[in-house]
């Protein structure tokens, strides 16, 4: 596995994706098969790299089948439920997490209930919301200070869950990985609205981590981002994917419902005037992002 050229693999996957004729391959199943055959015909990849690439394609295929709720179902040999995923069983993952509820606690019932609710609805083994004890973090270093929080980097000793081991019937962790910590001010006084925003954030990020489906999913969940700006758009060079961050978390944890927070040039005028944030005000922020992308300058840069 160490001989696999990861960047080359993802470049081949991206070539396969951009080669799709969506008039011919007009559903996720045809598109998946086309991508597989394109990878198998790629002479620049070794056999091990092709195997790795197809496994990555299967992960995406599983994700799409589950979230679109379509495709051939199979009977899980462990729990006997009809599942959609091929690399794992979504119900076995949920049952594994439920059985582990008694083995951890944050010390706060509201937080525990929120995390448990998210885990019960988990559909992927690599996007699981969980409680991380502070002693599982090492090399904590201050990075910067935001408007209402301090940002740190750290090493998570165990790392997050990445895949399901069907033979051992358990989730497998990545191992030590770099993480970002956000120290929230007044979090002990967080109001119910903060927990509702956190729940929306966790649900959306566990379903649709990438930027394009994530934006659709935000509104599918009847949620609003409230703070879309270029500082909250992240890019992964490894797999060439975009991500949205900080959904609904602008401002302090104990902010009142009447308060207005965000990055001023991206906030819709009606919100600045005191009206509530809406889907339309999110779209205004997207418009400002489009301005920044097309002009190369932040909006209202000289004001």
UniProtKB/TrEMBL annotation:
Keywords associated with the record: ATP-binding, Kinase, Nucleotide-binding, Serine/threonine-protein kinase, Transferase
Residue ranges occupied by any Protein kinase domain in the UniProt entry: 1-303
InterPro entries: Kinase-like_dom_sf, Prot_kinase_dom
Cross-referenced SUPFAM superfamilies: Protein kinase-like (PK-like)
Kinase recorded as keyword: yes
Pfam families according to UniProt: Pkinase (PF00069)
GO molecular function: ATP binding; protein serine/threonine kinase activity
PANTHER family: MITOGEN-ACTIVATED PROTEIN KINASE KINASE KINASE 19-RELATED, SERINE/THREONINE PROTEIN KINASE
Name listed for the protein in its UniProt record: Kinase-like domain-containing protein
Species in which this protein is naturally found: Rhizophagus irregularis (strain DAOM 181602 / DAOM 197198 / MUCL 43194)
């Amino acid at each position: 596995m160490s001989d696999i050229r990861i960047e080359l693999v993802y470049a081949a996957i991206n070539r396969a994706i951009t080669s799709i004729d969506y008039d011919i391959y007009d559903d996720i199943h045809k598109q998946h098969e086309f991508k597989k055959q394109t990878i198998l015909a790629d002479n620049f990849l070794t056999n091990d790299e092709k195997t790795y690439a197809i496994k990555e394609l299967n992960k995406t295929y599983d994700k799409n089948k589950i979230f679109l709720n379509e495709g051939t179902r199979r009977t899980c040999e462990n729990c006997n439920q009809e599942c959609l995923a091929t690399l794992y069983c979504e119900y076995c993952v949920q049952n594994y997490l439920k059985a582990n509820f008694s083995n951890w606690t944050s010390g706060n019932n509201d937080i525990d209930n929120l995390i448990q609710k998210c885990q019960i609805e988990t559909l992927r083994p690599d996007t699981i919301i969980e409680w991380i004890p502070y002693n599982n973090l090492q090399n904590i270093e201050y990075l910067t200070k935001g408007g209402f929080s301090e940002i740190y980097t750290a090493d998570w000793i165990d790392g997050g869950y990445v895949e399901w081991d069907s033979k051992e019937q358990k989730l497998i962790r990545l191992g030590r990985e770099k993480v970002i910590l956000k120290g929230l001010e007044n979090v002990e006084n967080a109001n119910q609205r903060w927990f509702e925003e956190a729940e929306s954030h966790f649900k959306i990020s566990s379903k649709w981590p990438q930027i394009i489906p994530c934006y659709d999913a935000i509104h599918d969940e009847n949620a609003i981002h409230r703070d879309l700006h270029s500082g909250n758009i992240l890019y992964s060079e490894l797999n060439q994917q975009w991500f949205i961050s900080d959904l609904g978390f602008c401002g302090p944890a104990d902010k009142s419902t009447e308060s207005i927070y965000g990055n001023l040039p991206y906030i819709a005028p009606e919100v600045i005037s005191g009206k509530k944030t809406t889907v339309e005000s999110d779209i205004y922020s997207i418009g400002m992002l489009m301005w920044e992308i097309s002009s190369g300058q932040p909006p209202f840069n000289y004001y």
